[in-house]
Amino acid sequence: MSKTYDLDEILEAAVEVEGSDLHLTPGLSPMVRVHGHLRPLEDYPQLSADDVADLLYSVLEPYQKEELEEEWELDFSHAVSGVSRFRGNIMRQRNSLAGVFRAIPWAVPRLGSLGLPESVEDLCHLPRGMVLVTGPTGSGKSTTLAAMVGRINEERGVNIITIEDPIEFLHEHDQAIIRQREVGTDTHSFAAALRHALRHDPDVLLIGEMRDRESVGIALTAAETGHLVLSSLHTQTASLTIHRIIDMFPEALKDQVRGQLADALQGIIAQQLLPRADRSGRVVAAEVFVSTSAARNLIREGNEHQLNSVLETGRSAGMQTMDFALANLNRRGLIDRETALANCVDRNSLQRHMVM
Fold this sequence. Notes:
Strand order of the largest sheet: 9-8-10-11-7-12-13
Shape: globular
Order of helices and strands: HEEEHHEEEHEHEEHEHEHHEEHHHHH
Strand content: 25-35%
CATH architecture of the largest domain: 3-Layer(aba) Sandwich
CATH superfamily of the largest domain: P-loop containing nucleotide triphosphate hydrolases
Distance between the termini: 57 Å
Helix content: 25-40%
Number of helices: 14
Number of domains: 2
Structural class: alpha/beta
């Protein structure tokens, strides 16, 4: 670069064009994702490997530089005053560095502003059990979880502990006590933080992501023993979420885990963000599963593949399938038919809902 650029300046420029993610990669100018699509950030030149490394190292603390050099990848958080907070990830690629920064608003979003079904708010009132928010990367899982914690924080006098990698939305004490722990800064791992969190008299535990069998096992135990556990997984439907959890465990433990899930699981919100048809931006489509006696029996008996029938008939309990959600958005003119078809679970189911 002939001109010296400041990373905070580039991040601010990305936020000004409503970018959700900034990508820094050797051989390209800074790229920004706007409403789901990547494009170059205007007025910035192509970056060399040295340019990218200089920009990334400029915002790292000494211990983070050391971790990056040892592990060759790093998750961290960064803030630009008056602009936004960012979740950063740096990785090595082709013997050089690349980085991605996701913008995280300062303010915790209001749950009612996200466009989710009303039954999601009911899940915030649960005294105990497990609630999971699932979906692909970039589907708004962290935003939904933060909004749910925000709702609990403003309504209930409880003790909330979050374990995140890294911390994204910053919460302030309201009706609740809220403590936020960051993996790598405040604790060595999700599992270690979970084990110790149970000794801090928690009512609500937010686990940013259940990544391994140990953290899933501790989370299930916490949900069974009177805590409300909120977490996320990279799965696309309620039934696939349950399959994923059970498949983390060896065959000899699967029946036990099915029993634990049947007792502890209270709800699953499987969501995706889709381009709007009525204006620029994206809209959320969400499948919502709420635990009922019929659903618990299916999980306990290993018939979770039949959960879709429970979702189809459980609308009075606040449930809906992804295909129903997509058809509803299409009927309201919020997404076009092609988008609905491209993102459905079952085309026949979607088309049936579209003509209802």
